[in-house]
């Protein structure tokens, strides 16, 4: 009787030990799984700020590149616009000078007058004196003014042909073209005596 009871107790103790041994690995596995989950969460938390910083740096780099491109695009038209504006103003000024006369034209005219006086001082007829002293001087002035008018017209046309010019630059260029064309027309007419012919000795 006592032996049977002892055997039963021994069997129960063995079952309990086996149950405890079976339960122990399960608890250890659960603890390992929890530790691994905590480690993964910590790693994700460490990675997210780094990724956020990396994305911010990339955005800042892209913004910097875009700003550089915009500055480069703004600088190129600015320099080109300055050149076009200067050319338009020069064409208008040359056109006005062609109409009003230049110091160069005056010097050339006075030189032709002096040469005419020298040539006709001895035995020149009245017709020769008119032609050499006055006619050549007028023609020289018209020639010089015509050169200025032609330059003004060419510069104005160049400004108008090139694209991307502001409206006021094109307006000034149009004014230069008009003044240059008008000055060229008057110079050609004066040079070939189309508007006023030389006076004759008998008039």
Structural overview:
- There is one protein chain.
- This protein is an all-alpha fold and 203 residues long.
- Helix content is 87%, strand content 0%.
- It contains four helices and no strands.
- The protein has helices at 2-100, 103-119, 126-161, 167-191.
- The chain is rod-shaped and about 130 Å long.
- The model is unreliable at 1-9, 20-24 and 49-53 (pLDDT under 50).
**Termini gap:** 175 Å
Mean pLDDT across all amino acids = 77
Structural class based on helices, strands and sheet pairing: mainly alpha
Report the strand count: 0
Order of helices and strands: HHHH
> How does the overall form come out from the CA principal axes?
rod-shaped
Uncertain residue segments: 1-9, 20-24, 49-53
Query: Hey, roughly how much beta strand do the residues contain?
Result: under 5%
* Rg of Cα set: 51 Å
Question: Regarding quaternary structure, how should these chains be classified?
Answer: single chain
Helical fraction equals over 70%
Sheet of most strands: none
- The number of helices is 4
């Amino acid at each position: 009787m006592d032996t049977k009871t002892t055997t039963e107790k021994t069997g129960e103790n063995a079952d309990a030990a086996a149950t405890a041994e079976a339960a122990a690995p399960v608890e250890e596995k659960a603890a390992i799984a929890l530790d691994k989950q905590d480690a993964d969460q910590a790693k994700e938390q460490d990675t997210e700020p780094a990724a956020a910083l990396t994305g911010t740096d990339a955005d800042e780099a892209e913004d910097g590149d875009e700003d550089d491109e915009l500055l480069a695009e703004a600088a190129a038209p600015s320099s080109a616009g300055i050149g076009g504006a200067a050319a338009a103003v020069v064409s208008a000024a040359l056109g006005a000078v062609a109409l009003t006369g230049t110091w160069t034209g005056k010097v050339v005219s006075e030189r032709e007058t002096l040469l005419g006086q020298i040539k006709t001082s001895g035995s020149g007829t009245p017709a020769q004196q008119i032609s050499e002293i006055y006619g050549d001087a007028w023609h020289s002035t018209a020639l010089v003014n015509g050169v200025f008018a032609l330059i003004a017209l060419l510069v104005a046309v160049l400004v108008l042909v090139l694209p991307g010019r502001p409206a006021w630059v094109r307006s000034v260029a149009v004014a230069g073209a008009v003044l240059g064309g008008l000055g060229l027309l008057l110079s050609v007419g004066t040079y070939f005596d189309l508007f006023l012919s030389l006076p004759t000795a008998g008039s």
